[in-house]
User: What shape does this take?
Amino acid sequence: MAGYASFVNTAVGKKLAAQLGLPRPVRLRRYAVDAPLVDGAVLVGGHGGTPLLDRVRAVLADEAVTAVGEVAEGQRVSAVVADLTAVESPEDLESLRALVGPALRSLAPSGRVVVLGRPPREAATPAQAAARRALEGVTRSIGKELRAGATANLVLVSDGADSGVDSTLRFLLSGRSAYVDAQVVEVTGGEAAAPADWRRPLDGKVAVVTGAARGIGAAIADVLARDGATLVCVDVPAAGEALARTANRVGGTALQLDVTVPDAGERILEHARARHGGLDIVVHNAGITRDRLLANTDEQRWASVVEVNLLSVLRMNEALLADGGLRDGGRVVVVSSMSGIAGNRGQSNYAASKAGLIGLVQALRDDQGLRRRRITVNAVAPGFIETEMTSRIPFATREVGRLMNSLSQGGLPVDVAETIAWLAQDASAGVNGNVVRVCGQSLLGA
Amino acid sequence: MATTSQPTSLPRRAAVIGGNRIPFARANGSYAHASNQDMLTAALEGLVARHGLAGEQVGEVAAGAVLKHSRDFNLTREAVLGSSLSAHTPAYDVQQACGTGLEAAILVANKVALGQVDCGIAGGTDTASDAPIAVSEGLRETLLQLNRAKTSGQRAKALAGLRPSHVVPEIPRNVEPRTGLSMGEHMAQTAKRWGITREAQDELAAASHRNLAAAWESGFFDDLVTPFLGVTRDENLRPDSSVEKLAKLKPVFGRGEGATMTAGNSTPLTDGASVVLLGTDEWAAERGLPVLAHVVDAQTAAVDYVTGDEGLLMAPAYALPRLLERQGMTLQDFDLVEIHEAFASTVLATLAAWEDEEFCRERLGLAKPVGSLDRSRLNVHGSSLAAGHPFAATGGRIVASLSKMLSEKGPGARGLVSVCAAGGQGVMAILEAA
Ligand SMILES: NC(=O)c1ccc[n+]([C@@H]2O[C@H](COP(=O)([O-])OP(=O)(O)OC[C@H]3O[C@@H](n4cnc5c(N)ncnc54)[C@H](O)[C@@H]3O)[C@@H](O)[C@H]2O)c1
Assistant: This one.
């Protein structure tokens, strides 16, 4: 934590913040291989038949976490999982209030609220659609009400996709999702295979990360390698020194390559095939900014950002997603941005490129060829993440950026990386075409 | 291309799998504060990353430096320990003046060929910026005496021997100890002997810059170079160099009318490091690494320059016929030829000697001259005049680049590497595309 966040956690800062009612960011709980899934018992409940709770209990039992049906006086819970998949009408939402409301006071720091529902578009009646959609409003409000690093997220599980929910449940409960707040994740199906070891869910996978020399890309390489993947690290030749550091740290290979060259996709594939026998995971992370007000943006500034952030991804995907490209069960994750969702003054070119990526992900969601090959394509949209890119933002703007979210702090590169690693798992086969923000529930574009 | 069968006695051929170097920097430029160990480690780290060797035990690493601090007595091993290679990787230092890098590659290739290692790394590093400085002989003797003194009286006596002139340090100079002449002055004599013109030298220098610039532009070095300390290209490279600009420079070596050698057609002092990955075809295949070329043969030679019998940098001219005879080849059989540009005139004098009937008969004992070289095959991606010449790093630069060029030409293409060295020596090797 830096700037305001570290000040407010000093003795003086704490007092001042309490008196003035200022936000008090806390150190977020983050994943470690030997850490428990959550720190303490989890309250589970819901409405009606709660068809998903058996799975929830099984996941908790597998991680040696106690599931409780109610919170005893003076007891703390580390998380609340509310199964609202069976709601028929808005009246049923009372079950949510009755379960989650009183429990919020007992929620431990960096606690979790996970609400389970079904997609409104699959509802049988308008009343059911209304009730299902209402869950999103409640969850987002809970996110804003929570303190001390706790988050609230909603998972919409399609009918028949219940078996695909485990990886998402684990992700949202664990410290991996530290900076993912007030998101709606859709689990729509797919054959989700549990890994042999949840601590190495990417064992045997070959992954390529573009822009891996530094910042978020370097963190992605670290996390994918920690989870078991073999890494191909790509960055421009000029960033080769830092790229070599990343590659050697993760025991992978460095490929000095500008992603805008016409045959970048082919060269990545060729490298991965020759060195590692194939390719399973692609993370399109390389990106640049050339900020100016649109009124002052010339053709060159416009073109370079669109070229690096969007056109290169489209071009590489042609090779990577073609038959003989990514192996069956492959994963593509693109790194979009909050700016692509909310827009940002002075970033029209950047926002265009990052919004374009979302369009790309949504278009590929229903691609029959990819569905047959069980390849998923998702986006993560980071909010304010502490990197070299953001450390160059002027102080005041930077502080505002850090604080304008429910967790009152900037995220870390590892938070984006953990989110990508979850999407990359075999067990996340049912998560496709999603755009997951890693923004601590930013007030922008919410 | 050679059509003859190769009467090579080697049991198997070592493969050149890849290479890496840091961009070369002008002395006292961007690497002024980097040591040989820093640069060699950086070159190794880039090689390890490119080939996915982190944590791997390599058969051996052989490398060296020409200008070396006494503290660097175990330079290569120290660089290995500072790298991501397994600490179980043995290493040793090699030193053969400017031939160091190529000689190291030959040593490792020979061990691979003999089955003593299945992979190895060869390289070299040199810094003219962070050069060792020695104390004067008088001060050194005084200090040693002081160290041996047991009583304060003896100490005082030792110190009393100290003279003001003793504290002037000795900075290493690029001179031949036995003649007191700098390498440039030696080369000026040879250039005169062979009538090498200023124009021809400037043309060669301009071509070197033009060719190297084009190679950088085309991305040729994307998988051969890893940036270091923010330097992403060879600092000495002047893409806009031209014969006209070079013609304006004043000669720095030789005297009077016949002086033709300038700072533009001589290599500048340079800092840098390079390494080459060698191994068996099987070792490469197990890791999915492409084999660029094989080391076919190598030859060193030395000349008696002390008595003036031969020019200091002419030894490669003598190494070639021995190689050609052993391989049943002619100079014209090579698809590519890399002659290290110590000076433009070095390359030109060597080529002139091979064309000269009398020299080839009298000196090389050949019935007919070696003949002329198709210049379009010479240093096609530039050489030391443009890239610079960190002494021990030049061999690795050439071996890696030539191997890649040969592999682009296709299987069977053959290339010749020639590096001249101080002390009247020369090192040569033949590579063949895999
Ligand atoms: N930092 C944030 O707050 C933030 C927020 C939202 C989105 N993002 C996105 O996350 C990604 C990573 O951002 P970061 O903060 O780590 O930035 P960064 O500038 O630190 O790293 C980006 C990397 O991409 C590489 N790159 C740029 N152009 C390339 C090209 N043509 N080919 C190959 N590599 C190239 C760069 O060399 C660099 O190493 C970017 O896509 C960025 O838009 C960042």
Remarks:
- The pocket of nicotinamide-adenine-dinucleotide is lined by residues A 210-211, 213-217, 234-236, 239, 258-260, 285-288, 308, 335, 337, 382, 384-385, 387-390 (CB under 6 Å).
- The interface with chain A takes residues 42, 45-46, 48-52, 54-55, 84, 219, 221-223, 225-229, 232, 287-290 of chain B (CB under 8 Å).
- The two ends of chain B are 14 Å apart (CA to CA).
